[in-house]
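call fold target=ISNCY family transposase ISRor2
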Amino acid sequence: METVATMPHDAVFKNFLTHTDTARDFLDIHLPEEIKAICDLSTLTLESGNFVEESLQEQYSDVLYSVSMQGHPGYLHILIEHQSTPSKKIAFRMMRYAIAAMHRHLEAGFQQLPLVVPILFYQGKTSPYPYSMCWMDMFASPELARRLYSEPFPLVDITTIPDDEIMQHRRVAILELLQKHIRQRDLMKMLEDLVTLLSAEYTTESQLITLVNYMLLRGHTDQPKIFYRELGRRLPKEKTMGTVAEWLEEQGILKGLEQGIQQGMQQGIQHGMLQGESNATHRVATRMLKSGMSPEFVAEMTDLTREEIDKIPDWR
């Protein structure tokens, strides 16, 4: 029978700290007063599972307890460091585990993030513990990190930026304009702005092909043949856009889009995509792949599965 002297640190730790009354005493003694004041330790409940990655389980063990914090669900995550030499990265690791516990809480159906209090139990050779317990101190500039992570994150809400302002955004202007209006505006109403931006020659040929396919697959217009032909005619890169417009018409896509106006654009796209000797969706995908786009991106743009993408011949 294994004795206490030879049992791993992990077994000793979990034998004691998974006993709720023992854990309650531990927390009552060691929690900072301001945190203990918001915790109702009578509600302490042992939770299943752990967050330590398998590769580190010889060095760390953990126990998770749920607890009521001012009437809201919260958690106390106790981590023990078994290794004799302490780790400088422990505070960041504890933050990762806390976020993992928050994620599991949301996955269980809760709508609000819980407070998760990470607690390190240390029994190594070096004394006292030599490293900061604030994960932000691991940054080259801790003060900048504190400002960044204590304030709202940057937001680019393209829906609120005026079109005139977007038009001044150089190489990202056409991306932002299309992303802003692709769901609700007729492409024909954007023609002038699109020609202006594309004529500035900020857009690479690969990006141009991407935009054409994006407009085809996600945009809508009551005059698709006129739109694509006019766009190609008015651009400096007439050969590229003209070829695209002719190819779309040849494959029956523009015809299908026009026929679909009376039935609804989505049905029209589906009808157009089925014209020709082979499925035009695969032809669109092939062009995108040959232009250097990733299979994952092409799958997203065309609604083809990754398996269907992999079966497309002659693109690798």
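return ok
The chain has two domains: 9-148, 158-276. Confidence is low (pLDDT under 50) at residues 1-7, 267-278.
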